[in-house]
Design goal:
Chain A: Pfam families: GST_C_3, GST_N. The complex is a heterodimer of chains A (210) and B (208). With 210 residues, chain A is an alpha+beta fold. Chain A contains 8 helices and 4 strands. Chain B is of the alpha+beta class. Chain B has 2 domains: 83 residues, Glutaredoxin (3-Layer(aba) Sandwich); 105 residues, Glutathione S-transferase Yfyf (Class Pi), Chain A, domain 2 (Up-down Bundle). In chain B, strands 2-1-3-4 form a 4-stranded mixed beta sheet, covered by helices on one side. The termini of chain B are far apart. Classes of the chains: A alpha+beta (210), B alpha+beta (208).
Chain lengths: 210, 208
């Protein structure tokens, strides 16, 4: 089997979900990371199916769209729940998280809310819904006792909001405990500590790092 | 199992789901919320949003999750992993276009409509046209000879863009022919005829 190659930017962004999935499951992968706004990226942008990354080169094909890549890897590596009901629930959970990310993304790009609105109103209101949904299923993860693909996405989102405001998870005990649990997973811990120490940007701009 | 789809009276994100269910002749209650009813329903929804599909005691929200679920349930998800991931990718590409459309409609219709039709739309359609040629030279469906959930989304996306700009598909002949062909599917045709009598708005703010 050839080693999958992830093409993305030298930031966390949407590519980070994919990296976390690979690292936690000890799946070998290669990376080609482009500097955001660089000439090098400009040269290959049009060769991407939708002019975007992440792009995963896998099994002789190019796969783009973050959600598509995550769901494909989930099916391939048994990270998609064990039946249709679970697969749908994970999908719904992911989509709910994605909506919050879009609001965050708008803030980062100065197209949406102020930091105060985002941190004190929008994100807590969304986390309240996610906390309730998280508690509908028993176990340490979204469903049951092992992470599925949506857990990597939820974890990264919580971590991104936690970087913005260290106290943001305090009112959501289930999500807070989940965030700590993921952080301490043996395959992730070292990676996450290095990532924090290196201050790898979350976005293509420095905004969001504090 | 009885199905109930709750959405607004508009086409919006509910319409591809309605099209899929109508084409596959899956009986469902087409529950359309009026503006007055929405404040009562909103807090009851998992993320405060519709569409919401109730199937027995299961409550599903998020249009993409609903579509992919129905896709798996009704044989509209490809016949192998290669097709499944392609359908997923195609759908996500259409969705990006729809997000740009929605941003223009709701935030910048007056000033943004012309540049959207002139610049954004042709570029996005050209990418979809190219990708549509991957299977069967673009002469059938998104993933070849069998329809998938992405075809309903593609059809609706092209249809609302033809309302915005009647000539917008002239530069993308495969997509144009697909739209014409899909509208002639007997169950779709009969649904579209019924819909024409009601003539629902495409978007919540009445702009289209």
């Amino acid at each position: 089997m050839t080693i999958p190659q992830l093409h993305y930017f030298s930031i966390r962004g949407y590519g980070e979900y994919i990296r976390l999935l690979f690292i936690d499951n000890a799946i070998e992968f290669k990376e080609k990371n482009f500097v955001p706004f660089s000439a090098e990226w400009g040269q290959i942008k049009d060769s991407m199916i939708f002019g975007q990354m992440p792009c995963l080169k896998i099994d002789g094909q190019e796969l783009v769209q973050t959600g598509t890549i995550m769901r494909h890897l989930a099916r391939k590596h048994n990270l998609n729940g064990s039946n249709e009901q679970e697969a749908t629930f994970l999908d719904m959970f992911f989509e709910g998280v994605r909506d919050v990310r879009q609001k965050y993304f708008s803030y980062i790009n100065d197209l949406g809310e102020t930091r105060d609105e985002l941190v004190n109103s929008t994100i807590p209101a969304s986390l309240e819904k996610l906390e309730a949904l998280f508690n509908t299923h028993p176990g340490d993860y979204i469903i049951g006792d092992k992470p599925n693909y949506a857990d990597y996405i939820l974890f990264e989102e919580l971590d991104v909001y936690n970087v913005l405001d260290k106290g943001i998870l305090v009112k959501f005990p289930a999500l807070k405990a989940f965030h700590e649990r993921m952080w301490n997973r043996p395959n992730l811990k070292g990676y996450l500590e290095k990532r924090a120490a290196d201050k790898i940007w979350i976005n293509a701009v420095e905004k969001g790092m504090n | 199992m009885a199905l109930k789809l709750s959405y607004f009276q508009t086409r919006g994100l509910g319409e591809p789901i309605r099209l899929l269910l109508a084409d596959k002749q899956v009986p469902f209650e087409d529950h359309r919320l009026s503006r007055d009813e929405w404040p009562e329903y909103k807090p009851k929804m998992i993320f405060g949003q519709v569409p919401c599909l109730i199937s027995g005691d299961e409550e599903l929200v998020q249009s993409a999750a609903i579509l992919r679920h129905l896709g798996r349930l009704h044989g509209l998800n490809g016949s192998n992993e290669t097709e499944t991931k392609f359908i997923d990718m195609f759908y996500e590409g259409i969705r990006d276009l729809h997000n740009k459309y929605v941003a223009m409609i709701y935030q910048n219709y007056e000033n943004g409509k012309e540049p959207y039709i002139k610049n954004t739309l042709p570029e996005e359609l050209a990418r979809l046209e190219k990708l549509f040629h991957t299977y069967k030279n673009g002469e059938q469906y998104v993933a070849g000879s069998a329809e998938s959930y992405a075809d309903y989304v593609l059809f609706e996306e092209l249809d609302i863009h033809l309302i915005l700009s009647p000539t917008c598909l002239d530069g993308t002949p495969a997509l144009k022919k697909f739209h014409e062909r899909f509208a002639e599917r007997p169950n779709i045709k009969s649904y579209l005829n019924k819909r024409a009598a009601i003539n629902p708005a495409v978007n919540g703010n009445g702009k289209q």
